[in-house]
Amino acid sequence: MVVTGNLLILITGLFINGGAGGLLMDETAKTPNAIVMNTVIASATSGLTHTVMTQWRNMVGRDELLAKKGYTQNYNMWELSNSVVAGFVSISAGCNNVQLWESCVIGFIGSLIY
User: Fold this and answer.
1) Measured at the alpha carbon of residue 83, what is the angle toward residues 77 and 86, in degrees to the nearest 5?
2) How far apart, in whole angstroms, are the C-alpha atoms of residue 5 and residue 20?
3) How far is 29 from 49, CA to CA, in rounded Å?
4) Distance between CA atoms of 92 and 49, rounded to whole angstroms?
5) Of 1, 83, 89, 105, which sits with the fewest C-beta atoms within 10 Å of its C-beta?
6) Tell me: the pLDDT tens digits for 11-30?
């Protein structure tokens, strides 16, 4: 249920970001396609950063557990979903004013803050 709810939040947010950016169009603004792409890139970067940090946290100092079970810990989908939403929230304010690489950095920082 958590993943479904977060997915609905993200899809709705994509429409809101793209539509609001389309209303604020001037010669310096980005198109709604670029705004949606910035939102997706920031959310995906935040989720990927959280996944890498979780894997690193699971692997450091747990060699005996890894040898015994073959794995150290299962991934928590709630945390991953919330991290993706954190990336979405962190890019929402400036999604029409940033480049793609900047949205990647914003998603990374949003994941670290989460």
Assistant:
1) 145
2) 22
3) 28
4) 18
5) 1
6) 887 777 777 766 666 666 66
